């Protein structure tokens, strides 16, 4: 907010007073969050020009009220939908070691983030407090729920497309021929069953057991080691 | 490093064979680690167990039906739109039941029917 405040006020005391407003706790999703910054920029301008009666509490109440809903929508929409799709396309391009995927992701993501943030900032600025009615209340709830359904489904598709956990466990009969290939049996039950099980197990450990991602990764190393020893996992690669 | 050349590579290949436990474990970990990444994403979205249904639906679309990522997103978008419409419908219903929107002109047909039934029931009750 500093450039804006510098621009709007001439007096140092007024600047200090205005900047003091923005020391309150504020934490939201960085891309969609620019909408809130746009709204507060409009309010700050109204306060500076004296056309509207805006006090610290109005601005901070608005920021505190909007940061939750915006973070909810942003996490599902940006982190849960846009990034996985872009990464999915980029990974498809990079299959076989091509650098094209990385370049594609860097360019498209930054363009998207820059243009999107710019658009949202000015949208928030021009909508002003009208955006609040849109985001808080029943309509905001409906948007949040719909977007989280979208995000959940996209993440599901991503994990089925790009994560593949398979087992090599098979039981041999006396003639040395496999009579039970576990992976085939699992695929008959639900294709990608092991992947889903591992993802949900990781989610359970992190969300319910409050383990840190690092600990879960170390646990997976142990699981992989034991699995290899037991013959459950075998990547089956050769030089 | 360049001085060592192929002999070192050969040495690595013999000491760390692909069918040895070390390399097998490393590659298995490589295939398991993305699960953590997906789980981190899921943590943002799934708050209760029923939230797994959209996830598993998307998973089934891709794994069992072989639909690719962008197509799955389009299907997911359609479901999101349907959910939004239903939610908004229930909101406008609640508003009608509360009697706030008496002067609302462009009322939707299901809401209107529901409202009429509700009013009829209420008047019948009063008569009884």
Strand content of chain B: under 5%
Q: Helix count of chain B?
A: 5
Tally of distinct domains of chain A? 2
Structural class of chain B: mainly alpha
How much β-strand is present in the residues of chain A? under 5%
Category by helix and strand content of chain A: mainly alpha
Helix content, binned percent of chain B: over 70%
Total beta strand runs of chain A: 2
Oligomer: heterodimer
Shape of chain A: elongated
What sequence of helices (H) and strands (E) makes up the elements of chain A? Answer: HHHHHHHEEHHH
β-strand number of chain B: 0
**CA-atom Rg of chain B in angstroms:** 30 Å
| Low-pLDDT stretches of chain A | none
Mean residue pLDDT of chain A:
85
Q: Let me know the largest β-sheet of chain A.
A: 2 strands, antiparallel
Q: Ranges of chain B with pLDDT <50 over ≥5 residues? A: 101-105
Beginning-to-end CA distance, first to last residue of chain B: 98 Å
**Tell me about the biggest sheet of chain B?**
none
Rounded to an integer in angstroms, the radius of gyration calculated over CA atoms of chain A is: 25 Å
